[in-house]
Design a protein that fits this description.
InterPro entries: FAD/NAD-bd_sf, MQO
Number of strands: 20
CATH topology: FAD/NAD(P)-binding domain
CATH architecture: 3-Layer(bba) Sandwich
Pathway: Carbohydrate metabolism; tricarboxylic acid cycle; oxaloacetate from (S)-malate (quinone route): step 1/1
CATH class: Alpha Beta
Cofactor: FAD
Structural class: alpha+beta
Distance between the termini: 55 Å
Pfam families: Mqo (PF06039)
Number of helices: 15
Organism: Microbacterium caowuchunii
Radius of gyration: 22 Å
Helix content: 25-40%
Number of domains: 1
Shape: globular
Strand content: 15-25%
Largest sheet: 10 strands, mixed
Length: about 475
Amino acid sequence: MTETVDVLLIGGGIMSATLGTFLQQLQPDWKISLYERLGEVAEESSNAWNNAGTGHAALCELNYMPAAADGSVDPTKAIAINEQFQQSRQFWSSLVERGVLDAPETFINSAPHMTFVRGEKDVAYLKTRYEALSKEPLFEGIEYSEDSRVINKWAPLLMQKRRVGEPFAATRVPSGTDVDFGALTRQLVAKLKDNGAEVLTNREVKNLKKLKDGTWQVSYRNTVGGTPGRVNARFVFVGAGGWAIKLLQKSGIPEIKGYGVFPIGGQWLKTSNPAIVAQHKAKVYSQASVGAPPMSVPHLDARVVDGESSLLFGPFATFSPKFLKTGRMWDIVSQVRPSNIGSMLKVAVTNFDLVKYLVSELRKTHPKKVQSLQEFMPTAKAEDWELLQAGQRAQVMKGGKLQFGTEVVASADGTIAGLLGASPGASTAVSIMLGLLKSAFPDRMADWEPALTELIPSYGTTLNPDPDAAASSVKRTAEVLHLPA
């Protein structure tokens, strides 16, 4: 007889781990299973070396707040991203207090978020952006300077041997963070297992079929030994990164029609040279190249992974037809359906700048990559930096457009849902999963609301309109997570 579980989580990344944790806190009597096709969880996009580790709060990322044709800026999206990250901080703080997560230093550390630009046009833009954000409560403490002496104190590597007379400017937010999403995911999954969830690695889902009783029959194969099997689930979440589209297509739900994804990979330059690492304690973002996707915005990052401090620079875009680092070469072809081929062809025709950018990135040699780094760090030497492969991202294609956010695709009856897309992804997993809970379990939200409010004190409200609430939330989570307020 086939086993039936209440919830099946497909994929062992931060999304499944976050949703599973929510459900275990809200409905501890439910039977939850998590399947991961690799031998360990958090080995794809959630792995610390496959992402930048930026606690995305729009403190330094310029793509959340582009300039309009008249030079004005709108902080709405930046505020929304920050609100989402505040929910993540509140959730993680509650889990630390409950013993679900280990000491904060094992997954989150202080790393001021900076933006550094050069040239008169970008300096004027950054000043306008600063003036707009400095009025917003969630961005309290943001600093701006065009003074080389001030910027040198913030991030010495940016200023050493900088050309005299070159216009430049920087902003800085001391409360920025570096997050090890791999460690965070592993801790969440370990606690899921401790509390009774079934966590099975080396188990690859092959097919999904809706049964007459409303449950989903999920067929799988054990990747070690090849043994097939089935399980029935009342609710299925597909958190399989780039492979989510393949599994949602196999489910047959009409909501996935018209979607496609475009894979973009990346590489980092990394150094663990103590003399260099000691001089840079921030995450510094800048403007993207023409045609570059948001995930390819250049940045020089302080990282703490498994207790080791290092610096990363990049990412440099790469291309592979795989949807995952451990995917398959025919991934990009296997997604093609009559319902999405027109949209995908339109994306190919209308994104010439992206194609041109990818070609230029693929042609970059190691010395050329170091030259790009030298625009940030003029004293950089090739021998101090090694090349590291980052993760694969599958960007959403829909309606003939390439989208750079994340999107939840769910069936009309709420029995299956999956996540497509990438940035800002992991940083806003809590907000994304809250939205999924509302769409998948609308009849239970009223009963769950008190527990959700305990986990996330600002649940159901926004912080930015209330300066006191914003300051209180930032202060409380900073204390619990051992971060500067």
